Amino acid sequence: MRTHPIDPVHGAMVLITGGARGMGELYARRAIAGGARAIALWDIDADAAEALATDLSRSGITVLAYAVDMGDLDSIRSTYAATARDLGDPDIIVNNAGVVRGAAFWDHDPVRDIENTLRINTLGAMWLTREALPAMMTDATRLKRILNIASAAGTLANPRMSVYAASKWAMIGWSESLRIELEQAGHRHIAVTTFCPSFVSTGMFAGARGPLWTPILSPREATAAAWNGMRRGTPMVLRPWTVKLGMAARGILPTRVWDAVAGPIFKVYRSMDHFTGRT
Question: From residue 57, how far is each of 9, 60, 158 by CA, in Å?
């Protein structure tokens, strides 16, 4: 017999990484609109997170900010312990924190760019989820959700974003495997959703140009698609529709044929040529 409410957001404790601004802020506002019980904003920018928490708390919902380094396991563990003590264990996790370096692979610094990107974009999400899963698996009284923000870059190779793409390919593989493991183990009250958007106009990818027929998504469009997919428990959400088209074309065409069309025709291989976004 189902004992948990059908809506996973209403009454939930929602934990959002990279929650101080941009899409993180929009996820928090959607949690408030959905009737969440409490929200934890995790971000490395403590001042910005505190300011947003103060603003959002005017809604009457408890919103607390936590300074955390998503590239550091000890920081995640200690911050999780503080969050659980203050607000309880999360019912919904939004693994949103991420960084990008748009450059040829050989121009990436081994530690500042390569290691840091993989730690924040991939390992941080894994470490946080590993902290939260025991409580999520034990409590089957309500629906639980894990929303992992990946990228279309994790579905197709793309020059000038090799390390970022690698971090998102890893995110997709882990996220999908975790989803299946939870289902096979009988924890069907927990759903894992992987969101793979093309470029989003947050400033992170300023200067990047979408491939053929691929518009730059607004943050509101992107968060709406991801959030709605998470609520439904949709395994993968890809936006816009050309992301799925690109995956299908790459899977069907021989590699050299794909190379021949991905650059001059679809413009996939040229999308980062004018990148000036945040690192």
Answer: 17, 6, 41
Helix (H) or strand (E) holding 249: helix 241-252
How many angstroms separate the CA atoms of 120 and 115, rounded? Answer: 9
d(CA 219, CA 239): 12
Please list the residues that pair with 238 across neighbouring strands. Answer: 196
In DSSP terms, 63 is beta-bridged to 39
Q: How many CA atoms lie within 13 A of 2 on its CB side?
A: 9
Task: Show Cβ contacts of residue 165 under 8 Å, excluding neighbours closer than 6 positions.
Answer: 151, 153, 154, 157, 158
Which regions of the chain does DSSP assign to beta strands (E)?
A: 13-17, 38-43, 62-67, 92-95, 144-149, 190-197, 236-239
Region of residue 213 (left: phi > 0; alpha: psi -120 to 50; beta: else): left
Give the span between the Cα atoms of 199 and 206, in whole angstroms: 9
Q: Tell me the domains of the chain and their CATH numbers.
A: 13-270 (3.40.50.720)
What is the per-residue pLDDT across 177-228, written as a single tens digit (0 to 9) for each? Answer: 999 999 999 999 999 999 999 878 886 665 566 665 678 789 999 999 999 9
Cα 155 from chain centroid? 15
Determine the angle formed by the axes of helices 162-184 and 124-138, rounding to 10 degrees. Answer: 10
Question: Which DSSP category does 215 fall into?
Answer: P
Residue with tokens 């997170």: 49
| Distance, CA of 235 to CA of 242 (rounded, Å) | 18
pTM assigned to the model: 0.91
CA–CA separation, 237 vs 221, rounded Å?
12
